[in-house]
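Can't paste images in this forum, so I'm doing it all in text. The chain is below; anyone willing to post the predicted structure tokens underneath?
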Amino acid sequence: MKPGVRVTGGELRGRGLAVPPGARPTEGRVREALFSIWADRLSGARVLDLFAGSGVVGIEAAGRGALDVLAVDDDPRAARTIAENAARLVAGAVGAVAVLRLKLPRGLARIAGRSFDLVFADPPYAFDGHAALLAAAAPLLARDGEIVVEHSARLDLPLEVGPLVRTDVRRYGESGLSFYRLRSP
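Text version of the structure:
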């Protein structure tokens, strides 16, 4: 395992998490910014953490009041690390964190019928399937929900994908966050 990453806020603030080989955890300042933006929406939220790696975003969401978190990653080492991190930090203290191994984005069809208030995706920066990922995640989004995709700050994601419209872009050094919501009816 790589050196760990620390939770930046909430009930689990300062706690360390293991990081699986090959994972690039979302930087602390980017997580702080994301959770500052989501602050009023986290309590009782259903959160989907895609390309979860160490699970730090989903676990921190649980520690900040999310009711239910589903962390998804394709890598078996990542899934095992997330499960171990969640069992060590979350069990009984905060919202539930479940882990699922799925090939993204096509594997999202396996969880069709579920609904999430907040979706965070942190694919590898070399990932080139952002439009397909957004299209696959859109049916899982609650009516007033939001999808945030972390990406290289040099990359501009599409303005619209299916029923989704990009509502904001924030840049933090080398990282960018693109925010999407369902188009108003």
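The chain has a mean pLDDT of 91. The longest strand covers residues 141-152.
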